[in-house]
Amino acid sequence: MTALRVRLTLLYTALFLVSGAAVVAIVYGLVAALPKDGAIRVEHPMDFLAYCRQAIRAANPDLERKCEAAFRQGVVFGGERETTLAALLQYGGLALAVATVFAAAAGWIVASRVLRPIEAAHAAQRRFIANAAHELRTPLTVMRTAVDVVLGKPAPTNAELTGMGREVAQAVQQAEVMIDGLLTLARTARPPTREDLDLATLAEDVIDAAGSPVHADLGEAPTSGDRVTLERLVANLVDNAVRYNVPGGEVWVSTERHEGRATLTVANTGPVIDAAVVPGLFEPFRRLRDRTSADGHGLGLAIVAQITAAHDGTLSAVPRPGGGLTVTVALPGR
Fold it and tell me: Which residues form the Histidine kinase domain (predicted)?
């Protein structure tokens, strides 16, 4: 990124220098084109002085002195005009040089600020690719290990071959689930097709299919958006609340219209969560437990965050004092 920052700074400085030089040239041309205020140019200055003295000596001595002063100062010959233009060019060039130095410094600062979010995005992309490669390698390692163990035996039994097949099938299913999550994450980044819907209806459908007891308080929450992805949002939040809960814990789901926005809130009585780690839970492949656990791939909340952003909504998560997490999604109401 340093090379790109240097190129942007040089480009900004060059544009400033060219524009400044054009301004100086235009000003110089305009001043040079101004009328000469009646100044008279003569081929023989001494003849003009003699004529001036002869014409005004008898009439007005003050006029004679003025004529001589004008001759000495070069007004008649345009010398003051050339001096002014030369000074304009000199000081204009000096001012342009100083301003260019400041422009280069300002360009470096601006380029740094402009590239900062791009650098963060590139870092996040590299982190995402590394995590995805790691997660995909896990089921592949399981499959290869199962196959190598069985094929390494001189005469594997049918039971061993069947066990190997089951392990491979389970690893394939795990990879399919993760790939499906990655595809969903990519699809939800696109602008959604919008239709009128109610978050309460979507939440009710998800709760009916959840198969776990959920405390529901579903008030009207009309909004507009893509029905499929918003239903996926609700399902991911409810699944996350059920999955990361304590034994015998509870889950609450509520919808309402609040300050003109359709609001969905999902909370549970899960383990105690440090507030410092909450923002990271919405990044891909981030979860509370270690990577070797079977509790998903850490894509559920990342998909929720992306769907919310695509629908111009806001997402907040707050740890509950006794353990668990309260997640609130607010979408533009209708």
Answer: 131-334
Q: How far is CA 29 from the centre of its chain?
A: 44
Tokens encoding 288: 């509370």
Question: How would DSSP label each residue in 244-260?
Answer: T--TT--EEEEEEEETT
Asked if residue 131 has pLDDT above 80, the reply is: no
**Nearest Cα residue to 13 out of 107, 93, 96:** 107
Distance CA 241, CA 46 (A): 103
What architecture is the 130-187 domain classified under in CATH? Answer: Orthogonal Bundle (1.10)
CA distance 138 to 126: 19
Residue from 225, 331, 327 nearest 282 by CA: 327
Residue 217 parent element (H or E) = strand 215-218
- Say how far apart CA 130 and CA 141 lie, in whole Å: 16
Question: For the chain, where do the domains classified as CATH 3.30.565.10 start and end?
Answer: 195-332
Determine the pLDDT at residue 291: 41
**How many whole angstroms separate alpha carbon 180 and alpha carbon 196?**
27
Strands 261-268 and 251-258, how do they pair? Answer: antiparallel
Fold (CATH) for 195-332? Heat Shock Protein 90 (3.30.565)
Could you give the C-alpha distances from 97 to 16, 28, 107, in angstroms and in order? Answer: 11, 16, 15
Q: The tokens of 220 are what?
A: 């009207």
From residue 128, give the alpha-carbon distance in Å to each of 136, 185, 283, 287.
12, 12, 9, 14
Work out the average pLDDT over 192-203: 90
Location of each CATH 1.10.287 domain in the chain: 130-187
In the chain, the percentage of residues whose pLDDT exceeds 90 is 18
Query: Is-above-0.70 flag for pTM?
Result: no
Cα–Cα dist 152/169, whole Å: 20
